[in-house]
Design brief:
This protein is mainly α. The chain folds into two domains: about 1-45 and about 255-370; about 100-225. The chain has helices at about 5-55, 60-70, 75-95, 105-135, 140-145, 160-175, 180-225, 230-245, 255-300, 305-320, 340-345, 345-355, 365-370, and strands spanning about 1-5, 305. It is flat and about 110 Å long.
């Protein structure tokens, strides 16, 4: 028999090793998942390349060659129809755009709007400066907002505030050198109104300039598109062809590169789904059981532990470090070996020793227990 602390030390070491192992499995899953993503991206690139090679242009000879490899994919007549439809669509868009846009007058109209915007912005600065002169005077905005000098003014001669407002209004009139308060209020409100009108006008002009520029850009793009109808239809047919190739259940031999990529993707996905993920789940479950054993052992009143328990743990630690239970190549992993941790340390026997007994078990009882199934509880 040995001291329980020696057992706990060996168990802690084992738990640490298994945690590291679990992390390694996670890293391996991530590694193969990344490889799958990269291969899927490469597969799409190869499909695009294949579509370009199969359909280099819209010549009749190219279409015939494509139909030889992908029967009935497209006819020359259908290509002509697509070209005519695309051309008509673009011309209609140009006609609709020209209803309220004159390309010949674009530059002059843009210059006119920009000059108008510049003038309005200049006026805005002047009004803002004058308005600022008024608003810097203490109390002016407050008196105006509360309706002083109008029927909306809420105070009366019986209130002290009435006389304070009267006094401040007279001071403001003197500061601004105006005839009376009504003149101050009138000029201030007119400046406020002008400032808002200028702001609205500037916003309208900016929007007009934006819309005009956008129409000019659209017109240029439509003209370019009309000159490149063949290229547009060719690209659409290549996209359709790529989807056709992607949907084939059985790829022809002349797509050998993609066949190899598909096989490799399938291999890696099988490794992840059928081996690595079950392995991670199994080792994670076993780690949880070991941690439970650690709690049970540390809380148990038992102070002495059979030497065989400690020796078993230490031996497994050495073997795991050497890789005895860790395949050198992922291709050699066997799903039947995914529960090698706890069975080798006889988890059930150890747990029951701490959980249900505080005395040393008879040697014969121990020998019977360690012959239990290697998968334990």
């Amino acid at each position: 028999m040995a001291d329980k602390n020696e057992f706990l030390k060996a168990l802690d070491e084992h738990i640490g090793i298994v945690k590291t192992w679990l992390e390694e499995i996670g890293l391996e899953i991530n590694e193969y998942s990344t490889k799958v993503s990269e291969l899927q991206k490469k597969r799409q690139e190869k499909l695009e390349e294949s579509a370009t090679v199969l359909l280099p242009d819209l010549k009749e000879t190219s279409i015939d060659a494509l139909n030889y490899k992908i029967p009935d994919f497209i006819t020359k007549q259908k290509v002509t129809e697509l070209l005519n439809m695309e051309s008509k669509r673009i011309k209609k868009q140009i006609e609709e755009l020209l209803l309220d846009f004159d390309p010949e007058a674009f530059e002059s109209k843009q210059a006119e709007l920009e000059q108008g915007l510049e003038k309005e912005q200049g006026d805005q600065k002047i009004v803002a400066s004058l308005l600022d002169d008024f608003e810097r005077v203490k109390g002016l905005r407050e008196l105006t907002d509360c309706g002083y000098g109008t029927d909306a003014y809420p105070r009366n001669i019986l209130q002290t505030r009435y006389y304070l407002d009267w006094k401040r209004a007279d001071e403001i009139v003197a500061i601004l050198k105006k005839k009376d308060w009504s003149k101050v209020r009138q000029e201030y409100q007119e400046l406020q109104k002008s400032a808002q009108m200028l702001k609205n006008a500037i916003n309208r002009m900016r929007e007009q300039i934006r819309v005009l520029s956008e129409k000019s850009k659209n017109y240029s793009e439509l003209k370019d598109a009309l000159q490149n109808v063949d290229g547009t239809i060719l690209e659409k047919l290549r996209i359709k062809l790529k989807a056709e190739l992607d949907s084939l259940e059985s790829l022809p031999d002349w797509l050998q590169e993609i066949i190899v990529i598909n096989d490799t993707i399938k291999e890696f996905q099988t490794l992840i789904i059928e081996q690595l993920q079950p392995r991670r789940e199994g080792v994670s479950k076993q780690l949880s059981q070991m941690q439970q054993l650690r709690v049970e052992a540390s809380q148990s009143q038992t102070r002495r532990v059979p030497n065989k328990y400690i020796n078993q743990l230490r031996e497994r630690n050495r073997q795991i470090r050497r890789g005895a239970y860790k395949p050198q190549s992922i291709q050699h992993i066997s799903i039947h070996n995914d529960n090698w941790l706890f069975p080798y340390i006889y988890y059930t026997t150890m747990f029951e020793y701490f959980h249900g007994s505080s005395h040393e078990p008879a040697e014969s009882t121990y020998n019977e227990q360690v012959t239990e199934t290697r998968y334990g509880s």
